[in-house]
Amino acid sequence: MSVTKMVYPLYQLGNPQLRIFRPNWLLTLVRPGKEQPPDTVQFRIPMDMTKYDVKNYLEKIYNVPVGVIRTRIQFGSNKKRNHLNQKVKKPDYKVAYVQLAQGQTFTFPDIFPEKDRTPKEGSMEEMQEKFMEDEKQRQKLDPRRGGVTEWFGL
Amino acid sequence: MAARIRLPLLLSRSFPPLRSLKYVHTEAAAKEPQYPPIVASLTAKSKSARLRQNEERIKMISSSPVEEKLSLITHIQRMKFVVYPQTFSRNPDSWYQHFTKTAYIPGLPEKFNPGTEGSQSAADQPAAPEIDEAAFNEIRDLVTRVILHEHWHKMRKRKPFLYKHQEQVVGPFLKTLVSDLTHSLAKYNPLLRLSSLDLSPQVNFYWRRGKRIIPRGHRRGRQEPIRFQIDDHPHSQIRIPQQLPQFAPLEASYTAEVPEIHLAPNVMPLFRRQYDNNIFTGAKLPDPACYGHTQFHLVPDRYHRDRLARQQHSDQVEPFLRANAAASLFAWTGAQAMYQGFWDYQDVSRPFVSQAVITDGHFFSFFCYQLNTLALSVETDANNPRKNLLWGTESLRLYEGVQDGAVVGLDDGVLRLLVQFLMNRPHS
């Protein structure tokens, strides 16, 4: 199947079932913008996919027990204008909310965890940081003056 | 100078009791307010004025008669969540329990357990003839007759169309069963003679629970209560002029657990609409049979367990039934309580009790509901330890099937439960 638009044959009673052996679709798992229940997973799917396509895709390829799927199409705004005052369209995309079956839950993982920024002992960075801290301490005014500047005074 | 100052101080220290005796009556007089109480303004553009306006409105509603009260509570229309008791959502029972502050207790209350049945019937003996073996056999014959009439003897020209089996076959069966059972049990339960059997009634209820912050619009950032409406259409219901006795004391609900869900209801999915807010038990306000006895619900084809099994959703059958019972019975008992004049700020003084039987023709599930509190909005729920209680059974099979003009596998236990449900009446 090529990347171009997929045309499904019209189904009539008695026709063989439509089978897709190597689908060309990619699903993107995204973090939900609004809070979702623990059994709901949010995907961005190609516009051509339907709910039944997503269900079969997840069940057959990834063995994920799927309960119910709801989809919607998000309109990408056409309001922003570039430096030539032309309207710039953000692309539309389809979102699928997949509710997992068999009591399974899913939470979107933390992809960018906070790194521990303390430098290790005896390294160049630690000495540089200490030097910068001492410099800053020297620039600060006498705390006994309570924030008053040194322009005037004895 | 120092000596002159000290003397009156010395005097005051030695004579305090005399002084207090002299001033007893004048102190009481001084306590009476000389000026009207200082309260916030009623018309200013301030938060305290808004609070005072709300208090005045609450006082006005509390002091008006029931019809006016209902119309004052429901006449303003706003966007509200429409709660369908029979829903396609996944795991709706925990959501509905949160919306209605209901705790689910598996199994039925002690009244319906076989251990205490003997004492119950002994206590009721002087009032009316009790159900003995002969009477029970009669009832069993009646039920067999009804099943055979519908599934064996009745001439059907063609099979019911796709997904019309429940409404065309099981609906009439349940209707005949309910009316025949009610009429035959009326000689054992005098309350049923005064009852009113409604067929395809309407039950509506409107309430507020929780708050949300308005995200967009000219009222952005302000708090708004979340409104709900149930429009239920049970298959049939029995209404009685006296109230059923409570299943458990009010205090017993303090320890029950209600599932808390901190997500917005529209994620469930639940949809919002704006239309008339109705509160209706099935009959209008002046009707003497204003209390509820039993509701009968039919499981439609869409939620039939065979269809759910084909879609591999068999684990959703029981949550569907529980959610249906919780929502329907909460709406019915809440409407009954509002007909008596209780509302959000005037909580119920006695628990309101109702029963429900949900069936799809073969499987029967029995539920008992006790409404202990109507105070579900944020202000009234802050210190409210009361919770509503829902008792329920799993689905029990009444009969296996019909073969060669005979009913196979009729379960006596289920029949006894059904009879006990219909025989439930206040002690006296």
TrEMBL record, chain A:
What segment(s) does the record annotate as region Disordered? Answer: 114-154
GO terms for CC?
A: mitochondrial large ribosomal subunit
Main location as per UniProt: mitochondrion
Q: Where is the composition biased (Basic and acidic residues)?
A: 114-147
Localization annotation: Mitochondrion
What GO biological process terms does the UniProt entry carry, in alphabetical order?
A: mitochondrial translation
GO MF annotations in UniProt:
structural constituent of ribosome
Assigned keywords, A-Z: Mitochondrion, Ribonucleoprotein, Ribosomal protein
Return the InterPro entries for the record. Answer: Nucleotide-bd_a/b_plait_sf, Ribosomal_uL23-like, Ribosomal_uL23/eL15/eS24_sf
Q: Which family does it belong to?
A: Belongs to the universal ribosomal protein uL23 family.
Protein's name according to its UniProt entry: Large ribosomal subunit protein uL23m
TrEMBL record, chain B:
What processes in GO biological process is this protein linked to? translation
Could you confirm whether the keyword Ribosomal protein appears in this record? yes
Q: Which InterPro entries match?
A: Ribosomal_mL37/mL65 (IPR010793), Ribosomal_mL65 (IPR039982)
- GO CC annotation terms, alphabetical: mitochondrial large ribosomal subunit
Where found? Mitochondrion
GO MF term list = structural constituent of ribosome
The alphabetical list of record keywords is: Mitochondrion, Ribonucleoprotein, Ribosomal protein
Question: One Pfam family of this protein, by short name?
Answer: PDCD9
Please, which domain of life does this record's source organism belong to?
Eukaryota
User: Is Ribonucleoprotein there in the keyword field?
Assistant: yes
Q: Please give the name of this protein.
A: Mitochondrial ribosomal protein S30
Q: Which organism is it from?
A: Xiphophorus maculatus
